[in-house]
Design a protein that fits this description.
- By secondary structure, the chain is of the alpha+beta class.
- It starts with a helix and ends with a helix.
């Protein structure tokens, strides 16, 4: 299997502005990739459609970082990071110390422990997969446990986008043929009781996130019915 770095660089060579952005980010600091792009690599040994990527950066060259922000004029995303749109690539990126769970005090540790604790900052265990791009090191124990147990569980319950994460959990459950933990089921039931048209709201969020139908209304309603 080719290394993840080789696959990403090979892919981005078809999109020169995105490749230039990625190289500039690597010069600005140590990069830590997280979530979906890593699952795709683990699933297929390849990246076939890299539309978006989540990155955490430990900034080393502040001037280079500020130059990137000045050039791309990013919007703030829902977790307080930056959304950069370049060519065919959407990059959501956070300075390491501004990771939402650290900034809000939901995960407390010393700054030198930020990297090793990144898997504790995500909502779902299937997102607890981190790749240290500069050192070629994986932090993926919780992710591997999830894949082995076939259970989707909650790592950090505090999250500003609970409903989005419920949609994502349902999509991942279907993709991998997994089940929900008791803790995740409880959270879904609690949210269900807060929304008058919960199925409709989840469908709206799915369309916003994926720009297509992955789960039909009937499939979502069936999932919810099993939790009632």
């Amino acid at each position: 299997m080719k290394s993840l770095e080789t696959i990403i660089i090979d892919y981005l060579e078809n999109y020169p502005p995105s490749l230039e952005l990625f190289r500039s980010l690597k010069q600005a600091g140590n990069l830590y990739l997280i979530g979906g792009v890593l699952r795709e690599y683990r699933d297929k040994g390849a990246i076939q459609d890299l539309r978006d990527i989540d990155i955490i950066i430990d900034i080393r060259e502040r001037s280079r970082w500020e130059e990137i922000l000045e050039t791309h004029r990013p919007k703030k995303n829902s977790f307080g990071g930056y959304k950069l749109v370049c060519s065919a690539l959407i990059v959501d990126i956070w300075p390491l110390e501004e990771t939402w769970a650290y900034r809000e005090g939901h995960v407390v540790c010393k700054p030198e422990e930020y990297v090793m604790n990144l898997p504790k900052t995500v909502f779902l265990n299937l997102d607890a997969i981190i790749y240290d791009f500069n050192e070629n090191i994986w932090h993926d124990e919780k992710y591997l446990e999830a894949m082995n147990s076939r259970v989707i569980d909650v790592v950090l319950e505090k999250n500003p986008r609970i409903l989005l994460n419920i949609v994502r959990a349902m999509v991942l459950k279907k993709r991998y043929g997994m089940s929900f933990s008791d803790g995740l089921q409880k959270i879904i039931r609690e949210q269900m009781n807060l929304e008058k048209d919960f199925t409709g709201r989840l469908l709206e969020i799915q369309e916003e996130r994926y720009k297509k139908v992955i789960l039909s209304g009937e499939e979502i309603e069936k999932e919810l019915e099993e939790l009632r």
